[in-house]
Amino acid sequence: MRIEDYAIIGDTETAAVVGRNGSIDWLCLPRFDSPACFAALLGNEENGCWQICPTAEIAATRRRYREGTLVLETEFDTREGSVRVVDAMPPREKHPDLIRIVEGLRGTVKMKMKLVVRFDHGSTLPWVRRIENHLEFLGGPDALSLWPGVETRGENLTTVAEFTVREGERIPFVLRWHPSYAAAQNEVDPLAQIEATTRWWKEWSARANYKGEWSEAVVRSLITLKALTFAPTGGVVAAVTTSLPERIGGIRNWDYRYCWLRDATFTLFALLDAGYVEEASAWRDWLLRAVAGDPARLQIMYSVSGERRIPETELPWLRGYEDSRPVRTGNSAHQEFQLDVYGELMDAMHKARCAGIPPEEHAWSIQRKLLDHLETVWSEPDNGIWEVRQERRQFTHSKVMAWVAFDRAIRTVERLHLEGPVERWRRLRDQIHEEVCRKGFSAKRQAFVQEFGGKRLDASLLMVPLVGFLPPDDERVQGTVRAIERELMPDGFVLRYDPETSSEVDHLPSGEGAFLLCSFWLVDNYALAGRLAEARELFSRLLSVRNEVGLLTEEYDPRARRLLGNFPQAFSHVGLINSARNLSHGGGPAHRRPQTEQSAPL
């Protein structure tokens, strides 16, 4: 199946990836970055999956989320009748549950169930035993217990069942993870749990204060961000999956089940602007815990609990999605030096304070230490926003974000009267600004370029007006937008940089899809410049590539017309939310700053 043929369900601690064919092909338990017990997404069904579907030929399939929820409904039509499979993961009390309800809608439909449990990313065959009214699957530290609503049997190292569902019937299945050394808790009432989960999500989504156009898309993206939140700590993972390729058959396959500091600013703004102060506050607290300590050891990403070590490993027994190898867990980019995270961190903290999030006693002292370190390293080359794994470079975007760090520190002192060497920071801010304008702008190209003294374009420079570095009507900004339109939009969506020369930058095989967040940044640039018709047209084009349940990946291939990269992608959904808000103010002046920019015009 294509990536867009999937949806997710989750309990705000992990999430399952569910296909149009009724198969759950990816699930990590007990948390997002745990080893998968279903890994068919990156291999085949022998690596673990759980399918419930009709046995006869399926004439039509329809999917939707219950309005305002993460409760998924998949309907199958056959010649004999129609059936609905309802999937949900209730917010957990202790251990995670996955509930599936088969509902007869019309006629009498013969169904089949196939459960293939393989722990440790599809590599470990469990020991299966029957205990009273449920089955237990044991493997190392993990156990799954299944309470089926029908009789099951073992067949070829899998658990299968055939059953019939009639109109008005409901047949439940409950799967629960628990440590292998602990007994499963008592069976839950699956029908009551489905309804309770529906109410929980409806109450949560009803708190969104967004009232503008595209409310359905915005609320769905907010629900997706909530689904990507690790509730115990407040951390937000970049995606549910690992190793879904940026190019089919390629090696640009990374693990995104971790929390990037870079996402902090964008996610925090989106949550705050939608009225979710509690979630934004929890994310702020996660940030502070994660970065506390030696500022020289600041990482760009951490685990959902804030662990620093995320060793990258290849899993050779998994063939990869559509043979896109290698499959990786962990991410060695956590060891990279990326200057922009300082700016994003300072921007996030400034926004949090301005929004009235209750202050944290040690936050400013931590920020001061980070700024002291940044003073000594801002001029050094780094790995950049695109996490180049080879030699470091003087990336222009990185310097812009170093400017943001000092700019937001100055504004924090001026607006909130905290203590700091503001005059020294002003001198540094001015120095960085002058250097970016002198070295990062190409007079020949009339555009900002990827690195100092270089000639390549880079879509990250669309951030220049969004963070307030230059006003949107500055000719250098407009020249950069024109250049990106001319050279990085071959099919109506924005590429990160020239794919033909990308290997010269990151030393990986060239070629990838259009980066959806960059396209949303262009929407924001259009809105700032008063090009509202073009902004709305591009935004509509971006909305059209969502799958039928409203989800986006990291990238999109316009020629193959398919989604690429890990799924669903927090960055893409944050971009959608922020662009929708900016366009909702389209009747205002052209110089209106987007929601990602909280500073006064320079």
Fold blueprint:
Elements (H helix, E strand, L loop, with lengths): L5 E5 L4 E5 L3 E6 L7 E3 L10 E6 L5 E6 L6 E6 L3 E8 L8 E20 L2 H4 L4 E5 L2 E6 L2 E7 L4 E3 L2 E9 L3 E10 L10 H16 L9 H13 L1 E2 L4 E2 L22 E2 L1 H12 L3 H15 L9 E2 L10 E2 L13 E2 L10 H15 L8 H15 L18 H21 L5 H18 L1 E2 L4 E2 L14 H4 L8 H13 L14 H5 L7 E2 H13 L3 H13 L10 E3 L4 E3 L5 H15 L18
Helix pairs in contact: 3-15, 4-5, 4-6, 4-15, 5-6, 6-8, 8-9, 13-14, 13-15, 14-15
Number of helices: 15
- Overall pLDDT metric: 93
Number of domains: 2
Global Rg: 24 Å
- Briefly note the CATH topology name of the largest domain: Glycosyltransferase
Strand content: 15-25%
Provide the helix percentage: 25-40%
CATH class of the largest domain: Mainly Alpha
In total, how many beta strands? 26
Low-confidence stretches: 587-602
CATH architecture of the largest domain: Alpha/alpha barrel
For the report, how would you describe the main beta sheet?
15 strands, antiparallel
Distance between the termini: 49 Å
- Given the helix and strand composition, which structural class is it? alpha+beta
How would the global form be characterised? globular
Pathway: Glycan degradation; trehalose degradation; D-glucose from alpha,alpha-trehalose: step 1/1
Protein name: Trehalase
EC number: 3.2.1.28
Catalytic activity: alpha,alpha-trehalose + H2O = alpha-D-glucose + beta-D-glucose
